[in-house]
């Protein structure tokens, strides 16, 4: 698997090297926002408001589905009048009970961790909201419990359907008056995604294409990816996961201010010294900072100081700024840029961005 940047501008390779159609799936982000909104409204997600606000919201989901909970929490923001947590495992915490809302998200509707949590939620008398494939085991659990279910038309990998899986959660948050989000906002987000998709389209060449440029930055490095606000950190985490799953590439996720108390120390370590790996410069760190227009003033100082620190030590840096007014718009533009970059990185290494054979093998081994 060698890195060949020329592959990014070879239209034939971008088609043949992507047999699962990850690039077209990524380009469908705007359509997914619109369909996710319509499906949530048609499924009467607003019924959640009938019993009043829950004490807490627990979102259960794995991989490309679980990120929906992180996006929801970041959109509602720090002023949230209730805790919103994302759970990525088999068991609901002991404190979750009948006054809480559990949202189970699964693109396939058939992920064992998520199904286990949905079943526990029903047993404990929690309000349940399900989001996932139509006709799935998750839908059966929700229907049996007379819970609201949003049957989103997911096709392919959940990570390529992130907006179909996320928008119903934002509609739920709006119904519970946790954040203002109406049809006009979702249309604005869709338009912003269309604009980013146009700039990152395969036919646009590397020197003007932000998705390809980011892939060029990331190639042959070990990316350390930080966010400088809650919203930017969700996009940073998503980018790290997309690099893992699309490009089969390692990445280290961090969040300011915490990363300034531990990961920053790696700027002085062996991975930051390019020449100790003279034969394999691929091991060198690259700091990628995703920033938001809304940052705590101390985080702005930390971000700027960390970038200076990295540059002074010869650690290459990439800084990306979120665009948009609403936090959902800002996260969406950064996430889509990262989705493109991770797919282009895969294609530059001639790696199939859709296949995840190690994940499938692991699932098969634990099901035996
Ligand atoms: O998203 P669902 O279908 O619940 O699956 C959960 C996750 O499983 C993983 O093994 C991967 O396949 C992820 O892309 C996926 O998101």
Automatic annotation (TrEMBL):
Superkingdom assignment: Bacteria
Annotated ranges, domain SIS: 44-184
InterPro entries for the chain: Glu6P/Mann6P_isomerase_C (IPR019490), SIS_dom (IPR001347), SIS_dom_sf (IPR046348)
Keyword Isomerase set for record: yes
Compositionally biased spans, kind Basic and acidic residues: 1-16
Family listed: Belongs to the PGI/PMI family.
Full protein name: Mannose-6-phosphate isomerase
């Amino acid at each position: 698997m060698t890195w060949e940047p020329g592959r990014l501008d070879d239209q034939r390779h971008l088609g043949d090297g992507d047999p699962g159609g990850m690039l077209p799936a990524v380009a469908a982000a705007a359509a997914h926002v619109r369909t996710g909104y319509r499906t949530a409204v048609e499924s009467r997600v607003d019924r959640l408001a009938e019993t009043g606000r829950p004490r807490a919201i627990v979102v259960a989901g794995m991989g490309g589905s679980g990120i929906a909970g992180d996006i929801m929490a970041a959109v509602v923001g720090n002023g949230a009048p209730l805790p919103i947590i994302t759970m990525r495992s088999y068991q609901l915490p002991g404190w979750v009970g009948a006054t809480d809302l559990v949202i189970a998200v699964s693109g396939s509707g058939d992920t064992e961790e998520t199904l286990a949590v949905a079943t526990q939620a029903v047993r404990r008398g929690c309000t349940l909201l399900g989001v996932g494939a139509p006709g799935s085991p998750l839908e059966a659990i929700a229907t049996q419990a007379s819970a609201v279910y949003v049957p989103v038309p997911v096709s392919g990998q959940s990570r390529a359907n992130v907006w179909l899986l996320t928008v119903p959660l934002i509609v739920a948050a709006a119904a519970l008056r946790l954040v203002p989000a109406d049809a006009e906002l979702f249309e604005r987000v869709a338009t912003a995604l269309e604009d980013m998709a146009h700039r990152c389209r395969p036919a646009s060449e590397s020197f003007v294409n932000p998705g390809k440029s980011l892939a060029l930055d990331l190639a042959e490095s070990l990316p350390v990816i930080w966010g400088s606000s809650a919203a930017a950190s969700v996009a940073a985490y998503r980018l790290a996961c997309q690099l893992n799953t699309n490009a089969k590439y390692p990445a280290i996720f961090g969040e300011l201010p915490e990363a300034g108390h531990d990961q920053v120390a790696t700027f002085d370590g062996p991975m930051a010294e390019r020449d100790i790996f003279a034969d394999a410069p691929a091991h060198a760190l690259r700091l990628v900072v995703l920033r938001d227009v809304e940052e705590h003033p101390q985080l702005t100082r930390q971000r700027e100081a960390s970038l200076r620190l990295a540059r002074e030590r010869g650690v290459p840096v990439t800084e990306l700024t979120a665009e948009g007014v609403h936090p959902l718009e800002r996260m969406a533009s950064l996430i889509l840029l990262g989705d493109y970059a991770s797919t282009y990185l895969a294609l530059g290494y001639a790696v199939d961005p859709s296949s995840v054979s190690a994940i499938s093998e692991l699932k098969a081994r634990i099901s035996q």
